[in-house]
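Lab notebook, bench 4. The sequencing result for the construct came back, and we need a structural model before the next group meeting so we can plan mutations. Quick request posted to the team channel:

Model the 3D structure of this chain.
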Amino acid sequence: MAMENHIIDWNQAWKEIRNKTAAKSRGLQFWDKKPKYDAGPTTDEDYSNAFLEIMDPGPDWSVLDMACGTGALAVPLAKKVKSVTAVDFSSNMLDMLDCRCKSEGISNVKMIQGSWEDDWDSIGIEEHDVAIASRSLVVEDLHAAISKLHKIARKKVYISTILGDGPHDRRIFKAVGRELHPGPDYIYNYNLLYQMGIQANVRIIKEVRKKSYAAMEDAFNNIRWMMGGTSDEEDVKLTAYLKKHLVYRNKQWSLDYQNIIRWAVMWWEKEN
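Done. Here's the predicted structure in token form:
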């Protein structure tokens, strides 16, 4: 296995398989279209709690949360550390995060609009004690992104990515007649880290996700967004699927089954 790791260019392998998946099209326009109603309290506390347990954050830490999204980690982290710098290329994501911080009285989160590809110095991303990239390494050049995180952190780096299908619901893809290609999972990250001379720790998080919606239309719109848009024919099939599997309980709509999602968290300490 060690010999194979030296033969295979894992960054190039990442690029090749990623270019064949839907994740390739998830740029700024995709995230700016994330439904606003999907803000509010996080729907994936299992994941956030497990990630923070692995981190065991210190009260004096400064943390960079790169590609932070709506704050699944930035918000709970801010309650445990000295400061959080939350960076995302989508103003929509940052608006949702700002609303969450204000609603919970959080004042130690600094928000920066920026991307993996930007010059981090020029947009004000400074060195931090710890750098994290939670479920956000959907990048063209994985080696370059990891190198930036490694350089910006004084103490530790934590990253996480999918194992298998990730957050995608294979049953829905099958129902609308579309093949699911979730893209490269954690083994590409881990093998690239090894190739870069980084011996990372790994732990698998199992997240039980069951999202709830105020209206059936919200469920429909959120799933269409997650799939990157759907055709008229797929809309008909998706509507039929949701009518069959959405149930109304406690004044909210949710699917009549749980979606089990597995994430791989990898982390390492900086060597002096």
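The chain is about 40% helix and 25% strand.
Will bring this to the meeting.
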